[in-house]
Specification:
- This protein is 37% helix and 20% strand.
- The chain is built from twelve helices and eleven strands.
- Helix 1 crosses helix 2, helix 1 (16-28) crosses helix 3 and helix 2 packs across helix 3.
- The longest helix has 21 residues, at 72-92.
- The two termini are 29 Å apart.
């Protein structure tokens, strides 16, 4: 669609706020998300984009099924918009010039499965925010496949390699699922010694028909039809239900304390004791059953290239991948 303002008026100038609006929409793909990030309303963002297009005489954004995308003219304006953002950030900084250059500022929005956010991301993000007081973080928890449309977040963490053609896929880490039960449950119901014997037990896992993540949906393959279910879309409820003796949980091994090699000694000496795992010191120890049953999984991140241009997003992604403080980094190893 051709803009009705084919030629910019020489009396019109590009306003810095209009460039910042373009930058926000380019990163988040939605006017509503951009407005929230800027602390204004949707109408203000729309008005600023319209003013920018009037000033340059061309469209800077184009609607697509994937959300708002930069036009060639909008992409050429991106460095100028980033320069305005950097200048304002530097002017507002109370630190010295060298410190400001190394500091991470602004808000990074992360969407991730609850287990990943808790057990892996949170310690990294907490460390980064201690080092960089100007870094703000928003975490949304969801277990789903990478969205092909613009999601309004900077980094989307998913299980399995994401199928998102407009994004950069970055491997983060391996993990695995195993079968666990509480000591009390085993004493009352017995321990399965083969996969076939799992048919006598209740299985704790995700709802069968609401799980859109292919790798997680296939994790129960090889297991017989169980005697019953406890289903939830929240992994922390899987862990807690297993601890309460509801059944046998198919859980991330990271979420529970692995039993020592001498299982008999473990059970005799530690039945009913507690541990300091992710759920806190009041949760009973879980025992791994059928340890040969293991389902390897992977966490991946999907990030749009224009979002990765932000130093804060790039360094958060590197820290999530490598578990290293961003302040120690001197150069990027993310492929744009």
């Amino acid at each position: 669609m051709t803009s009705p303002h084919a030629h910019p008026s020489p009396s019109l100038r590009i306003a810095p706020d209009d460039l910042l609006a373009l930058l926000a929409v380019a990163r988040l793909g939605k006017y509503t998300a951009a407005a929230t990030s800027m602390g204004v309303n949707h109408t203000t963002v729309s008005r600023r984009i319209a003013a920018l297009e009037k000033a340059v005489g061309e469209r800077v954004l184009a609607a697509s099924p994937d959300g708002w995308e930069l036009t060639p003219r909008g992409r050429r304006l991106l460095p100028a918009a980033e320069a305005v953002e950097a200048a304002l950030s530097s002017a507002a900084s109370t630190t010295g010039r060298d410190e400001a250059a190394d500091a991470l500022t602004g808000t990074v929005r992360l969407a991730a499965p609850a287990g990943y956010a808790d057990w892996f991301a949170l310690p990294v993000l907490a460390q980064l925010q201690r080092v960089h007081p100007g870094l703000q973080v928003e975490v949304l928890t969801a277990t789903q496949r990478a969205r092909r449309y613009r999601s309004g977040v900077d980094i989307e963490v998913v299980v399995g390699r994401p199928d998102a053609p407009q994004s950069i896929a970055q491997f983060l880490r391996h993990y695995s699922l195993g079968l666990f039960a509480s000591q009390e449950y085993i004493e009352e119901n017995g321990e399965p010694e083969s996969l076939a014997q799992m048919s006598a037990h209740r299985l704790i896992y995700y709802p069968e028909h609401s799980l859109s993540v292919e790798d997680l949906a296939h994790a129960t393959e090889g297991l017989p039809q169980p005697a019953g279910h406890f289903r939830s879309n929240e992994v922390h409820l899987h862990v807690r239900a297993t601890q309460l003796g509801v059944g046998i949980g198919l859980l991330p091994t990271t979420a529970v304390e692995e039993a020592p090699a001498d299982r008999g000694e473990h059970r005799a000496g530690r039945a009913g004791r507690t541990h300091d795992g992710p759920g806190g010191p009041t949760h009973p120890t879980l025992v791994r059953v059928l340890p040969a049953f293991s389902r390897p999984m992977e966490y991946w991140a999907a990030v749009r290239p224009e979002v990765l241009r932000r130093p804060a997003v790039e360094q958060v992604l590197l820290a999530l991948r490598d578990g290293l403080p961003s302040a120690a980094r001197t150069e990027s190893s993310i492929q744009h």
